[in-house]
Amino acid sequence: MTRTDPSDLLAVAARWADPAGWPVRLRFDPTERWYARLAAGDGPEVWALSWLPGQGTDLHDHGGSSGAFRVVVGTLTEETVRDGRLRPHRLDAGAGRRFGARHVHVVTNRGDRPAVSVHVYRPALRHMTRYRLVAGQLVVADVARAGVAW
Asked: Which of 54, 58, 64, 95, CA to CA, is 20 to 30 A from 110?
């Protein structure tokens, strides 16, 4: 792995973009998206995720953590709330996204091929709030806690 600016979370995600260097073996789960933590400790927390076609997340935030993600294989669609509606943005392999501590989004594999991504958070995830979009407003659905929900 090459050196990157540790403050640039998207650069950190790029550094982890090769599954051959991961401490876990990449898997695909037919019932839900697979995920595994690749790194934690004093630096940013790094996760690998795999997505079969149709798999995705709920509308969620990252509990006050800033982050970034990079698509390693395939295509993912990120939807963010703007003007009371979900607005999609397609991310192909090699593309990525930085986000701040208040970022709320949905990520889905809308393609017909598997996708793989690397996600980086600072500080490490402790909880994530899930939302519903009701009449153009975010409404809290629940709060998932680290060590319990994932």
From this structure: 64
Which structural domain, as residue segments, surrounds residue 72?
9-125
Residue 48 corresponds to which amino acid?
A
Looking at the 3D structure of the chain, how many domains does it have?
Answer: 1
CATH of residue 21: 2.60.120.10
Interacting residues of 126 by C-beta distance below 8 A, sequence separation 6+: 63, 65, 145, 146
Cα gap 148→106, rounded to integer Å: 21
Judge if the upstream peptide bond of residue 123 is cis by omega within 30 degrees of 0: yes
Q: Is 16 within a domain?
A: yes
Rounded Cα gap, residues 122 and 69, in angstroms: 12
Residue 94 burial (CB count, 10 A): 11
